[in-house]
Amino acid sequence: MKVNIINISSNALPEYETEASAGMDLRANVASPIVLNPMERALIKTGLFIELPVGIEAQVRPRSGLALKKGITILNTPGTIDADYRGEIGVILVNLSQEAFTIEQGDRIAQLVIARHERATWNKVDSLSVTSRGEGGFGSTGAE
Fold it and tell me: What is the pTM of this model?
């Protein structure tokens, strides 16, 4: 699938790092370093603008290495970029660690996954089919 993209940053376009990668790294486009103190959050711009086909979304997801090694993750994850959005892609980073974290120009801050989606229409009914799970949720299928 071809996706139109504008890149106003000095970073290369996102690309898949391996043959089987689902996501492409997004990089920070910042004029100067941004320090995220513990429990702080910030919107980090990427310099990228995309035009997705209808029926396709882009999902902004955390990078596992940043989460594990530095405690840096994304709020509102996965962030959804709809096909009709034309603004700059931004990433809401949060520092869940106990140490300050500095974001520099070009740092890999998130992953972008392109995915198909369906649009639903509601069919109002009086009851739903019965399943073995029923109304169990929020940990009901796991160990206590």
Answer: 0.89
